[in-house]
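Notebook entry, cofactor series.
This is the third protein in the set we're modelling with a bound small molecule. For this one the ligand is NDP. I'm keeping the input format identical across the series so the outputs can be compared line by line later. Sequence and SMILES below, as received.
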Amino acid sequence: MKITFLGGGNMATALIGGMIERGFDAAGIQVVDLGAETRARQAERFGLRAVDSFDATALDCDVLMLAVKPQQMKAALAPIAGKLNGQLVISVAAGLRLADLGRWLGAPGQPYSRLVRCMPNTPALIGAGVTGLYADPSVDADGREAAERILAAVGSVVWADSEDQMDAVTAISGSGPAYVFHFIEALEDAGRALGFDEADARRLAIDTVLGAARLAAGSEDSPAVLREKVTSKGGTTAAALNSLAESGWHGALVKAVGAARARGQELGAELGKD
Ligand SMILES: NC(=O)C1=CN([C@@H]2O[C@H](COP(=O)(O)OP(=O)(O)OC[C@H]3O[C@@H](n4cnc5c(N)ncnc54)[C@H](OP(=O)(O)O)[C@@H]3O)[C@@H](O)[C@H]2O)C=CC1
Ligand SMILES: O=C(O)[C@@H]1CCC=N1
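Returned structure with ligand:
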């Protein structure tokens, strides 16, 4: 499978790194990116072809992965509008709707429809991502299977029932690693405030999150039951959880995920006007 990435930034790097780690051939992957430094980094790190604009070789692919920022997408697609000939196009962009991508990619009056929207996350770099997928209804089984094969190489996949759900996936798991890193930062800060040096505070915080996530992933107990098993009556965990409840922590996170979803919807509506 020949795959060209439009945009070689953070998300493309996570996907390419994860794919190569899991046996995809770097010789079959190309990157189109405006930045000379980005191209040099991609070529050096992965040994792949990186160019500054679409030439015949970059367009000669089975799958085109759209990995520029949502605000950059329309301009980035302009040079190839009307030039595709059946490539499966997979967008990783937050918010952008298939109808708008299809309009920007097609010839005037002929929207392109062999399109899949996906929302991966950066743990893809170590094969531990999770990706939501939604295909235009016109995409055939081969197209859906190709999209799933690429994203399943870097973690688990979940097919969304409707395109609307992609903004929710973005808010939960696309942005989710940032919430977890933020939690780790706070736990590390707490460790430092209680007298540990930076290295030990970080180790205690990261290994706690890693161990708890692995336990939750492998357990038949729900996260709520696992939480109760840590929480001795009248003990230390209860003191912490009571304090978190007083601060409205649970509600704050639910509200934050709602804000992320709303931003995705807003981006789609704003940028799709063009
Ligand atoms: N980061 C994440 O965790 C996730 C991101 N996404 C989605 O992935 C997409 C990319 O995000 P991210 O990787 O973080 O962004 P980055 O800014 O890291 O990467 C985008 C890259 O595209 C380049 N670029 C911009 N315009 C063009 C163009 N016209 N032609 C070719 N290359 C261009 C940029 O160059 P320059 O820097 O010079 O502008 C940059 O190197 C976004 O749409 C985002 O919604 C999805 C899931 C998770
Ligand atoms: O912050 C963003 O908009 C992108 C989408 C999900 C993660 N990063």
